[in-house]
C-alpha cells in the first residue's frame, strides 16, 4: 500500500511538472510514467486517462491556491493591503519557479484554458468553475470593503473579474518575457480598476 | 508557378487554422499538409520546418492586425472613442469566429505565448516583439491624448501595457467561456486604467 500510494503521488507530481512546462496535448502517458519512474501500466492503476490525471493536478493546484487566496483575502486588513499581499504572493511563486527551474511557470489554469477551450470537455468546465471561484473570492473581499466604506464599487462582481483578468494578462507577460517583475504593476492597476486613488491607498 | 504559390498559400491558411484550434506542439507537418491538400514533401518546398511556418503565420497575422490597430488608434477621434472602436473590432473578430466555426479563437499570439515560453526559440522572441509593438501603438495613442490634454497619465508606457494585458486576460475568458461578450467591459476597464472617469468619457 505504501509503495502504491507513493507511486500515485509521484505520477501526480510528474503531471504537475510536465503540464507546467509544455503543452498538455504534447505530453503522453508514457512520458508521465517515465518522469514518475513507474511502469506505464501503473499509471492506469491510479488514473484511467491523461485527462483524469490533468483533472487531479488542476484540483490539487486549486486546493492549495484557493487556501492561499482565502487566507490572504479574508485577513483583517484593508482591501488595498490584502490585494497587495496577494500580488506579492503571486510574484513570489513565479520568482521561486525561476530560481528552481529557470523559468516563470505562469498560471497552470490559464495555460490549460487556452489549450483546451476548443474542446468541450470536463477539464474546460472545471477550469471555468475555478476562474468563477477566483472571481467569487475577490468579489467577497470587495463587498466587505464596500461595507467597511473603504471603496465605492457599483458592480463588485464585474470589478472582481477585471482584476482576475488583469492577473492573467500580466502573468502571460511574466511567462513570455520570463520576468516576474512584469507583475509589479498589478496592485496599482487593481486600485485603478476599483476606482481607488492609488496614492491615497499607498499612503 | 501559379500552382506552386497556390499550394504555399494553402499551407499558410492550414497552419493559421490549425494553430488557432489546437496546441502548436500537437500539430504535425503531415496534418498541416493534409489540411492544405498538398503532399507532405511539398510542405518542405515552401517551409523548412513547422517552426518556420508558425513564424510566417504569426507574421501575417500581425501584419493584418497591426494595420487594423494603427488605422483605429491613429484616427482623428478622442482616445476614448479610439479605444472603444478597437474593442468593438476585437469583439467582432471573435463573434465572426463563433459564427464561422462555433468557437472563440482567442488571441493567436497569447495562445502561442503560453505554449512556447518554456523554450528559448525564435518564435518566443518574435512574440515578445509583437506584444512590445502592440504596447507601442497604444502608448503612442496615449501620448497623443496627453498632448491634446484629454488625459493625464504619468507613465504612458506602463498604462499601455496594462491595457494590452487586460485585453489578453479578457480574451482568455472569452475563449474559455466561448463567449465574446466577456470583452464588453474592456473599454470601461481601460478608461479606469487610464484614470479617466468613464461616465464623463461616455457622455
UniProtKB/TrEMBL annotation, chains A, B:
Q: Where is the DNA-binding region?
A: 28-47
Keyword set includes Transcription regulation:
yes
Signal as a keyword?
no
Gene3D superfamilies, per this entry?
A: Tetracycline Repressor, domain 2
> Sorted alphabetically, which InterPro entries does this protein's record hold?
Homeodomain-like_sf, HTH_TetR, Tet_transcr_reg_TetR-rel_C_sf, TetR_C
UniProt entry keywords in alphabetical sequence: DNA-binding, Transcription, Transcription regulation
Superkingdom per UniProt: Bacteria
| UniProt domain HTH tetR-type: residue ranges | 5-65
What protein name is recorded for this chain?
TetR/AcrR family transcriptional regulator
Please tell me the species this chain comes from.
Answer: Agromyces aurantiacus
